[in-house]
Design goal:
Helix content: over 70%
Number of strands: 0
Distance between the termini: 44 Å
Shape: globular
Amino acid sequence: MNSASNQNTFKNKALVIFVSYISLMMLGIYIAFFQYTVLSITDKFMLSAGMVGLFVAMQSIGMVISPFVLGVLSARIGKKKTILLSYALMIAGMLLAGGSGSTAAYVCSILLVGAGYAVLEATTSAVLADEFSSRSALHLNFSQVLFSSGAFAGPLIAEWLIDKRGVYFQHIYFIIAAMFFIMALLSLLAKHYGDNIGGKQVKIFSVVGKLKNKIILFLIIAVFLYVGIENTAANYTDSYFEIQLSMPQLSHTALSLYWLAMAFSRLLAGIMVKNSKAIFTVFSSIAIVSLVLAMLLPGPTAKIVMFAVCGFGCGPIWPFIIDSVAKKSKGYTAPMLNITFAFCGLGATFLPFLAGLLVNASNPSAAYYMCAAAAVVMLLFFLFARSHEDRSLS
């Protein structure tokens, strides 16, 4: 009987890993596909530059609002139902995006997708942290390998479907929605052994009150900065190579290598999880130096290499911060990670906006110098958090 029970537990955990990893890979494919088709959306709806900015911002707005609501709800209904709700939001948004013929409908669809996106990534990360608490850093890094791989493959898949197979770009939303529907069905079969619900009423104030913990607060500031850095570095690649270097054909190569190197370093960090503080410091330093060198070194080859090195340095940063938040939020993992992801959405909105102001006043290089400065501050806040943690343990 014990043997059968252990076998069922093993199969269930394997299913949890599979659904979590593939869902994160699909999120990576979607976000890269979205970035790849912004120009197509602009052409279809004849959007001005200001409207494009609003359109892109709607996704981030959805990523900020929904984790606060569904994150707290997850403590009452459990992570499984919360994940199913996030699938429903994403699928509904993608079906609307695939069939919409007006700007207003498209904007609403992207808001829905952003809302589901943030909650799905946050709650899936909470599942991995709770179900595999002794190896959470490994699973969070490895799951982000799949995310980065999806982000790397997304533009290639979109290009193949659109250019080679003649698929209209909006119809790709239907394909991605179908994949998420399959993941939702598989999620129904999975059981979360670490899903502690029903023990007590959880209110928004009790969850947000945990932000008073200096360790968690410092970590959230660090991830706010990191996500802003990651998005700014990716989103300004086109303008840097086109406007600054007059080599628009190289931006795709630089961006692809950026994501590919990130996947590799996350795989490496997942294996080397023994000293996360030292690993975080080393990789953050690599990202900071490479950002500066990418701007200073002459020649496009050196710059492309530095973009790849930057992606390599950025790789383990997000998983290690999220793992640290999860470890400090036992019993509140899902709501706290959702709140953390809301700050990720804020970072993804604020830092690129600030970079835009600097670029308008100077040139595209300013965005990357700002990223390097923000990365220094991010590293300091992570080290502040770990020093407070070390003192609390002594």
